[in-house]
Design brief:
By secondary structure, the chain is of the alpha/beta class. It is built from eleven helices and 13 strands. Strands 6-5-7-8-9 form a five-stranded mixed beta sheet, with helices on both faces. The structure holds iron/sulfur cluster (SF4).
Length: about 325
């Protein structure tokens, strides 16, 4: 469900003539439909050809060419002038979700979702509470939207609950929620009405991998600390502080990039300060990738027991 009418209204109010349109890869099939609607309303449209992984990933080059950039499907996480956000929501049945999870989840759950399904969480919470469950629903980090988790921020999860109930697709967020809380995560996909459980095995596998990467990093001869140029994932201060910590012991460079392509750099270990998912999900592409917190463990400035997920706040 993608409604551009409020964006058209906003574009008129801003007196925009030239409009940039940016869609995530999974929704690029809607390009012609949206362009047609915008053109019918008198706007000249240029479409971004770049991938878009989140609203931290705005096409700033295109923004320089247009009056306003319309960014589809991700909630705002950074304050950039002349950008309008359009939600992409999938309609689904609250009663089906509740019926399917009711006898499977424990008495108290922290309810979370992604931007596609988050708009019905309040209704789900209401129905679950009517059926005797304690539901924790709180504002997510970076967006302030109730129950919204991002791949780089799990603050919407309330650890006081016995378990997490995730409404959405894929394994990326529920697995992250299990690691963040060390609790069981019940994930229901509203389209398939299928429930999956994430927990001990996922957490265990994650920590084994991270422990082994830190061990391998001890043998590394040089380090590249990478900083993203993307507005919502640029953590230059953090990168500088990690760089300063490492450089007294290892040959270290600070690398500024748009899209990560470390194959071109002579790095035996990469320290990632861009989107945290790069270290957790893409490390195999690059060899050894550590988070800033893992570098502190490597340098004995943090104990392994105090391991924390890398998040952007
Ligand atoms: S930093 Fe990564 S996880 Fe966070 S919003 Fe951007 S793309 Fe998504």
């Amino acid at each position: 469900m993608l409604d551009v009418s409020s964006a058209i209204e906003e574009l008129r109010n801003l007196n925009a003539k030239k409009v940039g349109l940016q869609l995530p890869d999974g929704l690029k099939r809607l390009t012609h439909e949206i362009v047609k609607k915008l053109e019918k309303n008198g706007f000249f449209v240029i479409v971004s050809g770049k991938p878009s992984y989140g609203s931290c990933d705005l096409d700033l080059n295109l923004l320089e060419e247009v009056d306003v950039l319309v960014h589809v499907a991700h909630p705002p996480v950074v304050d950039v002038d002349r950008v309008i956000y359009v939600d992409y929501r999938i309609d689904y049945s609250v009663s089906e979700v509740v019926k399917n999870v009711l006898d499977k989840i424990p008495d108290s759950v922290s309810l979370v979702s992604t931007s596609t399904y988050v708009h019905k969480l309040k209704d789900i919470a209401y129905e679950l509470e009517k059926n005797g469950k304690d539901v924790y629903l709180r504002k997510g980090g970076r967006t302030g939207i109730e129950g919204l988790v991002l791949g780089c921020n799990f603050r919407a999860i309330d650890r006081k609950a016995e378990a997490v109930l995730f409404v959405g697709d894929g394994t990326f967020h529920p697995r992250g929620a299990a690691i963040y809380t060390d609790k069981e995560v019940y994930a229901i996909s509203p389209l398939e009405n299928r429930i999956r459980k994430f927990g001990y095995d996922d957490v265990n596998r994650f920590f084994k991998t991270r422990f082994s990467l830190i061990g391998k990093a001890m043998e590394c001869e040089n380090f590249c600390v990478v900083v993203s140029s993307k507005p919502g994932q640029k953590r230059l201060e953090l990168a500088r502080s990690i760089y300063n910590k490492l450089k007294s012991m290892y040959s270290t460079s600070l690398i500024y990039f748009d899209d990560v392509n470390p194959e071109n750099f002579p790095c035996s270990c990469i320290v990632n300060t861009a989107c945290p998912r790069i270290a957790y999900d893409d490390w195999k592409r690059f060899g050894i990738v550590l988070t800033p917190q893992e570098v502190e463990i490597l340098l004995k400035q943090r104990k392994w027991e105090d391991y924390e997920l890398d998040e952007i706040n």
